[in-house]
Amino acid sequence: MGICLNRRRMAVQSISTPDMKAVIQRVLSAKVTIRETGDVRSINQGLVVLLGVTATDNSLDVRYMADKIVSLRIFNDSDGLMNLAFTDLAEPNMLVVSQFTLYGDTRKGRRPSFVSAAPGSIAEPIYREFVSAIEARGVAVKTGDFGADMLVEIANDGPVTLIIDSPTKATDAPNGQ
């Protein structure tokens, strides 16, 4: 988007940086197996969160996503309607798995580009902060191993799958820079 400023007609372009992204699945059960060690972590009814992190994500994004996810009203009440929040479950369980491939850009060519995903040195501390933020809200959390090759098995309930992004971070850059 460009707009004109003063007589020099200097264009200002709004540049949006990628947002923290999560794919949320309501599950009857789920487990993750760490292929290298064979370690298995599992949950019963609850949520699976596949979390993608960008280099611009921060504690504000973590708090927003944690608050949003734990308060989602996507569980059925006694009438079969999605009116119950995740935290209304008797034992809310969550499986959180890091997922840089959520930022796979396939608009060019046949091989996805992952340049929007944060490098591990940035993503891992934010991922761990997210897990801690969920635990601080009274939720039992199991995780995969950050950066490991894993097998994730999900018994999706419904199926109910949502994609949630943290609020967009926009900056104004002159001349499209």
What do these coordinates show?
This protein has about 180 residues and is α+β, with helices and mostly antiparallel strands. The chain has one domain (about 15-175): 3-Layer(bba) Sandwich (D-tyrosyl-trna(Tyr) Deacylase, Chain: A). It contains two helices and eleven strands; from the N terminus they run βββββαβββαβββ. The strands form three sheets. Strands 3, 4, 5, 8, 9 and 10 form a six-stranded mixed β-sheet that branches. Strands 1-2-11 form a three-stranded antiparallel β-sheet, with no helix packed on it. Strands 6-7 form a two-stranded antiparallel sheet. The radius of gyration is 19 Å and the shape is globular. The chain starts with a strand and ends with a strand.
Features of this protein?
177 residues, alpha+beta, D-tyrosyl-trna(Tyr) Deacylase, Chain: A, 6-stranded mixed β-sheet, 3-stranded antiparallel β-sheet, 2 helices, 11 strands, globular, disordered N terminus, disordered C terminus
